[in-house]
Amino acid sequence: MAENQSQPRIVVIGAGVGGLSFAVNLRRKLPEFDNFVIYEKANDVGGTWRSNTYPGCSSDIPSHFFSLSTDLNPDWDYTHAKQPQFHGYWKSVARKYDLYPNLKFNTLVTSAVWNPSKSKYLITTRLVKDDISKMHVRGQGVLVQEEEDTPGEQQDEADILISALGILEVIRCPDIPGLDTFKGNIFHSGAWDHTVELKGKRVGVIGNGASATQFIPIISKDPSVKVTVICRTPNWFVPPIRAKYSTLRKWMFRNVPLFMRLHRLYYFLITDMFYMSVFANVWIRKLARRVCKAYILSTAPKKYHDKLIPSYTLGCKRVIFDTNYLNCLHRPNVDLNWNEIGSIIEDGIITKTGDKLPFEVLIFATGFISDDYPLHVKGTLETVKEFYDRNGGPTAYMGTTLPGFPNFYMLTGPNTGTGHTSVIFTEECQIDYMLQMIKPVLRGDLKTVEVTDKATARWNDKIQARLRRSVFVDCVSWYRRDRDGKVTSIFPGFATVFWWWFRRVNWRDYRVSARDPTQWERKQNQKEQWRGFKKVAVFFAVLSISIAILAKGAGKWDFVLDVCTKHLPSSSCPLYRRAKALWGF
């Protein structure tokens, strides 16, 4: 698509779920706008659903709730679909909205720096090779892609910068002594090396979280693959929930009006009820704990019972939906080892108890770095990383904007994860919120929008106060800064609360640079008065009906007006005075 240089320019970093969701909303709500580009370091769209190709990769959120509300899919094969179908869904969305012309693949954004004289971000990019099988260890134990000779850096400018990196961007690998001496195959589950043949080999899996519990039952089906799982902390498991959709059900999704949308609504309500049972109510949580404990004890081998029951509170870490993991522990070729790793040698692992565990393959299932920001984005004074460090960890107003970073917006930013509901839902709420601030810039009413320090501090204080009373501070987890500090990933509330808080921008919390400040102020005052008028109208309607019913006569309006006139504080309510003059009472 040809770029319209007369329009402000939007640069989106990342063509994963968040970046595509933003672009779809841009296409739908601002169809006349086309001056945007999405930079993606990989060779296709999909983000985590493109990169995570490990065996058994699937979602623990229902498929119908893990897709865009604007683009429901009647053809999901399972209630909780697998990676290939999710990746296919997002590719089809990109094609439907003609996003590929706006995408630049194999392009890594290396920096973005705010230029105050131009009120733009200077974007620096470079081309990268796309081969996730070429991974090696570098610094702090993080597996990174090998760099090859590529063309030099390129420059771009953005009036508006959207960070759509998500929280599954940078894989985490513990900095274990001797890691670089291992002579066998080594890779991370988030960058699965499909060229490695596991048949007949001794495989060490480091980590026992969500991804490990999905691929271990698959790779251990072959009895010649000896799998040893190096565990650190047990997890709470709930029974499997995946079911296959019948042909009839798919037909109904496609042909019966509202059926598919009601099905999605059902899952929305179920997941919020899950929050109530696990996170919000201590008595229900205790009951749920008993159910989970009974399930683990009835499914896993008896020899592991004392190790598999967590001592921490249910819900403190992400609850895992079992995908045959507990049952596969009965297999003779699967073993759990709870001894801490001391070092890695060329042919295996030495535990801190002195035991040697020989391996030909090491698979890290150690998650992703969620308590840092991987890009060099600099605002008026500092980088995002410096801002995070200064605030004790990832911090943002509404998880979306940062003070000192004009026209910069984050998807899946700090404290926007829920631990129970669909990230697609929360991102759509964020995008609606962002577009309320982006539209005035695109129309030319505003040059810049920037949240205030005071509003950011107030928001963070409110969120952290709620989190300190929550289950999320009861244990060490990836939800927290350095795993035991400030809770930086989770939103402390129902999905409904999330939507309500994000439904409208509070412009008092933002500094704006308007092209015509007087006109902008007048527009905002008019909008504020109209919202207040609607509130007064609703209040009057409810009050009138209530008093009329109490007066035992729905037509006694003289009585109603007399009560309203005598008892409402009209002196402190200019909108009431306006309504009084308008209606003549």
Automatic annotation (TrEMBL):
Transmembrane spans: 265-284, 532-551
Domain of life: Eukaryota
Entry annotated with the keyword Transmembrane helix: yes
InterPro entries: FAD-bind_Monooxygenase_sf (IPR051209), FAD/NAD-bd_sf (IPR036188), Flavin_mOase-like (IPR020946)
A molecular function GO annotation: N,N-dimethylaniline monooxygenase activity
Gene3D superfamilies documented for this protein: FAD/NAD(P)-binding domain
Keyword entries, A-Z: FAD, Flavoprotein, Membrane, Oxidoreductase, Transmembrane, Transmembrane helix
Record family assignment: Belongs to the FAD-binding monooxygenase family.
The protein's name: Flavin-containing monooxygenase
Organism: Marasmius oreades (fairy-ring Marasmius)
